[in-house]
Amino acid sequence: MVLSSSQFQILRAAMDRVVPADTDQGAWEAGCGDFLIRLLEDDLVDRELYRSGLDSLDKEANELYQNSFDKLTSDEQDDLLTSVEVGSVFTRWSVFPGLFFRTLVKNTMEGYYGSSRNGGNRDGLAWQMIGFEVTG
Amino acid sequence: MSSPRYDSIVVGAGAGGGIAACVLAEAGKSVLLLEKGDFITYADEPRDHLRNHRLSTYGHNTGPSLVGNPRVYVDPDGVERVVRPHEGGYSAIASGVGSGTAVYGGMAWRFHPLDFEMASTYGVPPGSSLADWPISYDDLAPFYERVEWEIGVAGGPPASKMPPRREYPMPRMPETKKGRWLADAANRLGWSTQAVPILANSVDRAGRPACSHCQHCVGFACPVDAKNGTQNTVVPRALASGNCKLEIGAAATSVTTDSTGRVTGVTYLNSYGVQVEVTSEIVVLACGAVETARLLLLSASPANPRGIGNAYDMVGRNLQGHVYTGATGIMPEQAYDGIGPGPNIATLEFNHGNEGIVGGGMLCDEFVAMPLHFLLNDRPAWIPSWGKAHKDWMRMAYRHALQVRGPIHEIPSSASRVTLSSDIKDSNGLPVARLSGTTHRESLKIAEFMRRKAEIWLKEAGAREIWSFPTTLGLSAGQHQAGTCRMGHDRTNSVVDESCRVHGHDNLFIADGSVHVTNGGFNPVLTIMALAFRTSEGILNRW
Ligand SMILES: Cc1cc2nc3c(=O)[nH]c(=O)nc-3n(C[C@H](O)[C@H](O)[C@H](O)COP(=O)(O)OP(=O)(O)OC[C@H]3O[C@@H](n4cnc5c(N)ncnc54)[C@H](O)[C@@H]3O)c2cc1C
Fold it and tell me: Which of A97, B313, B466, B534 has the smallest number of CB atoms closer than 10 Å to its CB?
């Protein structure tokens, strides 16, 4: 496994804030997790950045909210991620928080809005959502 | 290993090389056409939005192979990085039969007559190597026409800023909603426009169907083979003549010379990795502007100690491409129609005659955007990069966006150049290309001027929010790479003469983007192809 099961849970929760579910599917349901796991397995993204970044995100949640990241409310998660994005963190991270978050956002978008064949954009629903129609 | 002698060897089967091989072979000359890459087919090219020549985040499917072909890129701060073909700074076109022409968007622009006379029109900006071409628009005009008819261009009449010409063989691509809005807006602004000419079939032609208007044109192989490149026109013609042998997976490693320094042929590694030496009367190089320069530099020998054609240290200099600029706006109603390729209407109002500006550029509407390409490149600063607000924005903006973009006539600099890396080697053990240099300041000024014009056009078309990004410094080369073996009369500051023959080598010619003195305020491929026709006919005339 490229990620531990707890890292996997944090990833899921974080991705679902990057592209939240509403009338249209959220990141996880769209397969962004599968997409990222393939990138990690194929060594196309930095595994240590993810492992360490996800652990740190959870540590940060425990420090600030005494709860693990995936148990926080959506608003709490958004607030925390917004701080991480600008690098304002309270615990010691061994990777740059901003870099980790930008990478997470970029990869989530790549999965969500990219080709279904890569694991994300399940059933082409993201393209349907925005109206990118493939006609030939 | 050595093989039979040919009349001519053409290295590289892309835009220029495909044409050279065809002209020579159809004239009865035996031709060996060497292509480092493979065939590029739709069947082998799985439309991956993260692995293509428009967005190559994790690779691309149409060469150069990601393994064994690095380059060194020196960024504007002087930091050197080893880059792979899909990474920023590499300047990949494609690699294979057709090369860029198999995956391009096919905009088929002639350069403007003044594009050939930049120095005498504007003077030479300090620190630049701006120069006139040794040939004029009129010299090239008949060959532009050959490209338009023999490769196949669809389009309408020229804008009023361009000389009259023979009509294209095919009618323009259908007018789109965006095209109509922009044409009307330009009319109100008093700007001249024309339909964007495209190297693809708008009607069935040459045994291949009309464009199916899919959404994956630029960066991808064509699903119906309606896109006209060298791979489905002149290369098949060359082969049909019976005089051309095409060898794929064949990478030239040097141009060979005899003891007097005269060119005798080339050595290459065939697809089994075996080194082969072939001889010929004539050698034509068409490896693209980066690799042609590299090959000449790799061909140093006692008779040509600095590389072939490089007695005056000119090979590899003046590397240029296109600084791009443009703007995006949100229209009150949906602008998206998904009708590929996309570029429909252009203004040539600002290619020249702009107060205080050296040259200018063309602007036109954009290719149908891959959602990811749009999101990664065109999000305005005030929209968050993630979360509900971002998702809402994508749902609105993707279909409401109207974009105009275009290349500016870049001001070249001799400090932007290709050299050989002193330490990095390719999988064949040969030094790789090292690309260094950055944008000339004058180019930034032109880009800024054109960016404002793009915004004005969108505003007049009815866009509400409009945004654009300033151009940042950086070597432009890229898919429009050119200039590394510049044409000129004076052998001390150019590499080839006006017939594209390498100075001092009566049997060595260059038929790709390398020879461009400047790269025009337009996409370059029609000019590369027209020159390849002219150069090849010139070879035959003297033979
Ligand atoms: C996605 C994309 C879109 C584009 N859209 C447009 C457009 O709309 N309009 C336009 O005008 N231009 C466009 N271009 C640019 C256009 O494709 C290039 O300008 C053109 O292909 C360059 O022609 P060339 O002959 O210089 O080089 P290429 O066409 O690249 O041909 C060079 C060939 O030489 C081969 N080669 C290199 N080294 C060796 C060696 N040592 N031995 C053997 N073979 C070798 C390469 O594999 C390659 O096949 C686009 C390019 C891309 C990639």
Answer: B313
